[in-house]
Amino acid sequence: MKKNFILISIALSLVTCTKVLKDVHDYYPKLKMVSATVLDDGSVEVTGEVLSSGNGEMDFMGFCTDTNSSPEMLDMQINEVTVKGSKFTATYPPDFELGTKYYFRCWGNNGFGYAYSNIISLDSIRPLDVTAPCNPTINTVNAGTIQGNETYSSFQSSSNIGYWQIDAYSNSNILKYKFYTKPKTGIYTTTTNFDPGMGGVYVSNTSGFSSGTLTAGSKVYVNQYQTGKWEITICSAPIKYGSASVNFTTHFKYSE
Q1: How far apart are CA 24 and CA 242, in angstroms?
Q2: How far apart are CA 245 and CA 241, in angstroms?
Q3: pLDDT tens digits for range 171-218
Q4: Are 204 and 212 in contact (CB under 8 A)?
Q5: What angle is formed at CA 208 by the lines to CA 202 and CA 213, rounded to 5 degrees?
Q6: Cβ contacts of residue 236 below 8 Å, gap of 6+?
Q7: In the prediction, which pLDDT does 145 show?
Q8: Longest CA span, the chain
Q9: CA 38/CA 98 separation, integer angstroms
Q10: Could you tell me if 32 and 118 are in contact, meaning their C-beta atoms sit under 8 angstroms apart?
Q11: C-alpha–C-alpha distance, residues 128 and 202, integer Å
């Protein structure tokens, strides 16, 4: 094998006038994973650096990440990067599993092959919590009915194509919180459309013979603090029972 490499090196030198390097690894790029930083929305900005382009010009650079401690090039690959000098950056969208450790590294390719950098790991990647302007007692609801504040007695979730829903029950209320999909940390907006769409939430209540729906445009504050666990707050949002409009307030935690 060594003899073959020497013969190949001599041939390259004669044909291309390329300097023959003693160490085969010197033909490949050398890279450094500089940083992996969690941003406010839960996305991750990654930065790499080309320490050496090896014995050729850089053709491609990118990043990979995985829950495996040695991510490969195709694992959640990003190959569109912003280059500034010897450093290059990219941003992973906020699609990481909560409570899971991820490993990041960069890679680069020249005419002779590709190489990996060192690895940086991040634990518990999650966005900053959103803060509601009110803080009602946890697991209570005031649906604007004559019963006033009530404590939730039970919850359950259901899903189908185009929605994910929490059904909540108190002494006199049956409430539905209908999202397009399982919500992530963020501020959602109420809608009167039974199909809420991305970023929307349909909230309704049935109390005895009365049924009401939150009017469009109110804010719903959602914090996903673990996989399958949410905290939801609504502050004095208008809800209509027939022609009557009253305020709706709730604060609860739900676990699948």
Answers
A1: 79
A2: 6
A3: 999 999 999 999 999 999 999 999 999 999 999 999 988 999 999 999
A4: yes
A5: 20
A6: 134, 247, 248, 249
A7: 86
A8: 93
A9: 13
A10: yes
A11: 24
- The per-residue pLDDT for 234 is 98
∠ CA 167-205-148, nearest 5°, is 110
Share of the chain above pLDDT 90, in %: 81
Q: Is the pLDDT of residue 21 over 70?
A: no
Q: What is the mean pLDDT of the chain?
A: 91
SS3 2: helix
Asked if residue 132 has pLDDT above 90, the reply is yes
* Tokens coding 126: 């999650």
- Return the residue matching tokens 């991820």: 102
Is the distance from CB of 72 to CB of 63 less than 8 angstroms?
no
Q: Do residues 212 and 144 make contact, with C-beta atoms less than 8 angstroms apart?
A: yes
> Which secondary-structure segment (H or E) carries 6?
helix 2-16
**CATH 2.60.40.10 residue spans of the chain:** 19-122
Q: 226: which strand partners?
A: 229
Q: What is the CATH number of domain 19-122?
A: 2.60.40.10
pLDDT in tens, 152-168: 999 999 999 889 999 99
